[in-house]
Structure to design on (225 residues):
């Protein structure tokens, strides 16, 4: 998955935030960078996903019984709910580009990660207006956590202290009680640096990404976050 300007593994999406001890909202930067990329590429050079063979933009709209995005046409958007076993069912949104054509050049994919406490709706027009206009398939996701506490588990966010000690500044608020057992956290083991879910966010994202690749036509060489 390409994070902004370079090709990086999915885990980078979480690890790059570790330096932000103020726990601010950081994901919007990745979205702005993603949408500045020109998605033009030749059909011959595109690496098609399995989904390119499954859907036609001319299909009539129906329920999702035939797979994610079945029956959606160019520019269409739909919410979908997914749950990794033993975690939490969450709502996400898929939006197709305005010129979506599974038989043509596969479009790039943009994965949106909201800031701490946000959800799939935090992306707003960036995902449902700007992205499809620029030729992107967009998937805006919701991280684990109760309403108002949705989050992404990354290195140090719920496993402090680490090999080099605490992962936050001295005196930071301990947010573990807002997650607790329902989010896989054992707060008796926590210091004051735990502030996200303890569920595996990488597994969650890879599960969604796998489904999108299987059901939606995208260029596998142009996946952005």
């Amino acid at each position: 998955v390409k994070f902004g300007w370079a090709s990086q593994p999915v885990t980078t999406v979480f690890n790059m935030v570790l330096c932000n001890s103020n726990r601010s909202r950081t994901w919007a930067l990745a979205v702005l960078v993603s949408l500045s990329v020109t998605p033009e590429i030749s059909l011959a050079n595109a690496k098609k996903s399995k989904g390119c063979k499954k859907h036609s933009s001319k299909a009539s709209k129906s329920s999702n019984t035939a797979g994610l995005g079945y029956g959606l046409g160019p520019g269409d958007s739909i919410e979908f709910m997914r749950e990794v076993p033993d975690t939490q069912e969450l709502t996400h949104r898929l939006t197709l580009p305005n010129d979506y054509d599974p038989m043509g050049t596969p479009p790039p994919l943009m994965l949106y990660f909201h800031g701490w406490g946000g959800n799939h709706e935090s992306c707003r027009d960036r995902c449902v207006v700007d992205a499809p206009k620029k030729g992107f398939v967009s998937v805006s996701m919701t991280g684990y956590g109760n309403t108002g506490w949705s989050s992404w588990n990354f290195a140090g966010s719920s496993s402090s202290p680490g090999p080099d000690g605490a992962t936050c500044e001295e005196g930071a608020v301990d947010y573990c009680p807002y997650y607790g057992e329902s989010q896989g956290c054992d707060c008796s083991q926590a210091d004051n640096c735990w502030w996200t879910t303890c569920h595996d966010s990488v597994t969650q994202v890879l599960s969604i990404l796998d489904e999108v690749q299987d059901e939606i036509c995208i260029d596998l060489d142009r996946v952005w976050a």
The radius of gyration is 18 Å. The first strand starts at residue 2 and ends at 3. The beta strands are 2-3, 6-7, 77-82, 90-95, 109-112, 137-140, 223-224.
